[in-house]
From TrEMBL:
UniProt cross-references to SMART domains, sorted A to Z: LRR_TYP
GO cellular component terms attached to this protein's record: plasma membrane
Residue ranges the record marks as coiled coil: none
Chain ranges passing through the membrane: 735-756
Record key words, sorted: Cell membrane, Glycoprotein, Leucine-rich repeat, Membrane, Receptor, Repeat, Signal, Transmembrane, Transmembrane helix
Family: Belongs to the RLP family.
Gene3D superfamilies recorded: Ribonuclease Inhibitor
Principal place of residence: membrane
Native source organism of the sequence: Prunus persica (Peach)
Superkingdom of this protein's organism: Eukaryota
PANTHER family for the chain: LEUCINE-RICH REPEAT-CONTAINING N-TERMINAL PLANT-TYPE DOMAIN-CONTAINING PROTEIN, LRR RECEPTOR-LIKE KINASE
Hydrolase as UniProt keyword: no
Protein name per its UniProtKB record: Disease resistance R13L4/SHOC-2-like LRR domain-containing protein
Keyword match Transmembrane: yes
Lineage of the organism: Eukaryota, Viridiplantae, Streptophyta, Embryophyta, Tracheophyta
Length: 790
């Protein structure tokens, strides 16, 4: 390893007898000089760099004279200028044994070569480039390849059967591409293969049993694909050296089933086992009985029920990680598991009960969310597990107060205790946790004021305190400059909205203060929140005008398709389309855009600047005191799906531009002073519910006239020329055309068939004769009866 920096030394090209050149780890700028081609005796050349932003670049024409070169490593060197002919340049190196070109910005992978000269190649590393083609056929002529690495590209297509030609392969990494189809049966020919990695592709289908022929296999990673069918013991028949298995995906459908008998004894001793969305249940897999060397066990969504068996505890494993997420495991969790340093436990989404389990100080991440744990947080958690960095015990039945000794977890980065039964005030221990980036305390019965010590957390990104009984004013959070999500909804906060939210939180993306008692006006400083995509101030006592600068919310007015994703646990409630939606932060919440100012005391006109928020999906201004007209260019809100302006004092007509809102599916304009005609084209043809428009006596011409007949009188048409407008004439013309078409269809539907088919014509007139006879008989009988009565 070297640490040279500056311009690439050009004098190296004069060292004609040089055989070994290693400048790896350097930071050069500029261009690698072409005079390196003078080094005709060079066998080993390593110019790789550890810096991805290293500006050094080159073409490869100078490689032509390095006919003796056996090792070439240009990792991180920018080869953009040579991307179209890098392979022909390499093809002039017949002695080459190892070629490493990862992270070189290559984009073109030629599919054909007239001839192949570098057939001695045993190592080919082209990972982390931009290749977007299929796997080229010439690759399978490199029969001496022992290592092939295409990780982090965009390779497409299927794995061909010719993969089986590479019988010398020991390491095959095709992860993080766009490959499709299944694994070819010829995979069984690669009996020297030790590592096989297809992780994160788009592959599917049945896994061939020929996989069980890979007698040298140590690591099998085919995770994050969509496999189906059954895994049997034939898939592991000769895999005695297997140490790692990673298979499945996290989409929660179960297309892959482990069809293995309970008395099967595997030929291998695994150290790493990861299965996701693979059915191993309903019972805990008994074939793990002899897996005494396991250090990582992940059984995610495996449809396992019952309790953790005693025999699994008796394996006495020393674990780096234990994950039994999304199963139906129940009972109490034993405290006898042993863990290595910096390990994690995730038992989320099961039916475990009893008190919270405590293990060793080696655990750094503990996830016990969505279970049936009860009782208080153990008083000695800070002593038993002082190295916790992530604690998630949300969605259980835990009770009591938040213990003061949680403040001893000085390394904590995230604490999630939402959806429990905690009560009392929040302790003032936050100064002891400088690394906290996530605090989620929502949906409890916590009370009192927000501790001012929360404002000292300079790393805080997420603060969720919603659905509690907090009161008082919100303390200053101006030091929380990295805050992305602030949810204080459904509490009893009062006083003004702190202007510091807009002044010191430039990264804020979600701001919810709904259902509190905030007063005063909306701070103008909030208009500077350039990343905001959800703003909810509904159900407060805010007054004054809606700021005109609301049109400055740049994310909502941008045509950019960039989105901010969330990797937090927990849920966020949002009212849209008249009902409450609950989003997981890890789901599509980052796509949701909303401004909700409903149920306040806001007055004045709707600012025209608001119509520039073209990315806005929900706009709710209902239950205020807004006056004036609906902005004429409200049709600019091209992404709007929900628009609620009800219960205000708006006047004027419904703007014609609203017919351009083609995504609009929920509309409420009721109880205003609107007048004039309701638009009838595009989306408005579907808005026929009278409750959308009720309370506006001046509105007329509903999309379906029968809907509005109780609310309006039929218009009087004056006589003489001009008595009918164009719309009326068009409606009459449409009625006449419909009547003619209906008559023709009915006439020819009956008489046309009779004219063309003799048997139907005969049956029809025979039927008429019978009807005529029956009518005459009935009339005759009635006449006879009346004569007798007289």
């Amino acid at each position: 390893m070297n640490f040279f920096e500056g311009v690439f030394p050009s004098f190296i090209g004069s060292l004609e007898k040089l055989k070994y050149l290693d400048l790896s780890g350097s930071y050069f700028v500029g261009v690698i000089p072409p005079n390196l081609g003078n080094l005709s005796r060079l066998l080993y050349l390593d110019l790789s760099t550890l810096y991805r932003d290293n500006p050094i670049e080159t073409d490869l024409q100078w490689l032509a004279t390095l006919s003796s070169l056996k090792y070439l490593n240009l990792e991180g060197v920018n080869l953009t200028k040579t991307t179209s002919y890098w392979l022909p340049a390499i093809n002039m190196l017949p002695s080459l044994v190892e070629l490493r070109l990862p992270s070189c910005s290559l984009s073109m992978l030629p599919l054909t070569l007239p001839s192949i000269n570098f057939t001695s190649l045993s190592v080919l590393d082209l990972s982390d480039n931009k290749f977007n083609s299929t796997i080229p056929p010439w690759l399978f002529n490199l029969t001496k390849l022992e290592m092939l690495d295409f990780e982090f590209n965009r390779l497409t297509g299927k794995l061909p059967d010719s993969l089986g030609y590479l019988k010398s392969l020991r390491y095959l990494n095709l992860s993080s591409n766009l490959l499709e189809g299944s694994i070819p049966k010829s995979i069984g020919n690669l009996t020297s293969l030790e590592e096989f990695n297809l992780e994160t592709n788009q592959m599917s289908g049945i896994i061939p049993e020929s996989l069980g022929e890979l007698s040298s296999l140590v690591s099998l990673d085919i995770y994050d694909n969509t496999w189906e069918g059954a895994i049997t013991k034939a898939h592991f028949a000769k895999l005695g050296g297997l140490r790692k298995v990673s298979i499945g995906n996290y989409v929660r459908n179960i297309p892959l089933v482990f069809n293995i008998s309970s008395d099967w004894i595997p030929p291998f001793k695994l150290r790493y086992l990861e299965t996701a969305s693979c059915q191993l249940g309903p019972k805990f897999p008994t074939w793990l009985r002899n897996q005494t060397q396991l250090t990582m066990v992940v059984l995610y969504s495996a449809r396992i029920s019952g309790t953790i068996p005693d025999w699994f505890l008796q394996l006495d494993l020393q674990l780096d990680g234990l994950e039994f997420v999304d199963n139906q495991l129940s009972g109490r969790v034993p405290n006898s598991f042993r863990f290595s340093y910096d390990s994690f436990v995730d038992l989320s989404s099961n039916r475990f009960e009893g008190p919270l389990p405590l293990w060793s100080s080696n655990i750094s991440r503990l996830y016990l969310r969505d279970n049936l744990f009860s009782g208080p947080i153990p008083h000695n958690i800070g002593q038993v597990m002082p190295n916790l960095t992530y604690l998630d015990i949300s969605t259980n039945s835990l009770s009591g107060s938040i213990p003061l000794f949680l403040g001893n977890l000085s390394q904590l980065e995230a604490i999630l205790i939402s959806n429990n039964l905690f009560s009392g005030e929040v302790p003032h221990f936050w100064n002891n946790m400088p690394s906290l980036f996530c605090i989620e305390l929502s949906n409890n019965s916590l009370s009192g004021t927000i501790p001012r010590s929360l404002g000292s957390l300079t790393s805080l990104e997420f603060l969720g305190l919603s659905s509690n009984n907090f009161s008082g004013e919100v303390p200053s959070l101006k030091n929380c400059t990295h805050l992305r999500i602030l949810d204080l909804g459904d509490n009893k906060f009062s006083g003004p909205i702190p202007a510091s939210i807009g002044e010191s939180m430039p990264n804020l993306q979600i701001l919810s203060l709904r259902s509190n008692s905030f007063t005063g006006s909306i701070p103008l400083k909030l208009c500077g929140l350039s990343a905001l995509h959800i703003l909810d101030f509904s159900h407060n006592n805010l007054s004054g005008n809606i700021p005109h600068c609301i049109g400055n919310l740049s994310y909502l007015k941008s045509e950019s398709t960039d989105y901010y994703s969330y990797d937090y646990s927990g849920r966020f409630e949002l009212v849209s389309k008249g009902r409450v939606f609950v989003y997981d932060y890890g789901s599509i919440l980052y796509l949701v855009t909303s401004v909700d100012l409903s149920d306040n005391k806001l007055s004045g006109e709707i600012p025209i600047e608001l119509t520039s928020l073209i990315k806005l999906g929900t706009l709710n201004l209902s239950m205020n005191h807004l006056t004036g007209n609906i902005p004429a260019n409200i049709g600019n809100l091209e992404s709007i799906e929900t628009l609620d302006l009800s219960l205000n004092k708006l006047s004027g007509s419904i703007p014609q531009s609203m017919v351009n809102l083609t995504f609009l599916n929920h509309l409420n304009l009721s109880y205003n002073n609107l007048s004039g005609k309701i638009p009838t084209s595009n989306q408005f043809q579907t808005f026929v519910d009278p409750s959308i428009y009720e309370g506006n006596p001046g509105l007329s011409s509903c999309p379906l006239p029968i809907v509005c007949q109780d609310n309006e009188e039929a218009p009087q048409v004056p006589s003489g020329d001009g008595g009918e407008d164009d719309d009326s004439k068009l409606e009459k013309l449409q009625f006449v055309i419909s009547l003619v078409i209906g008559f023709c269809a009915g006439f020819w539907g009956v008489f046309g068939t009779l004219a063309m088919k003799r048997s139907w014509r005969y049956a029809y007139f025979h039927f008429l004769d019978k009807v005529k006879d029956a009518v005459l008989y009935f009339v005759s009988a009635i006449g006879t009866y009346l004569q007798k009565r007289s």
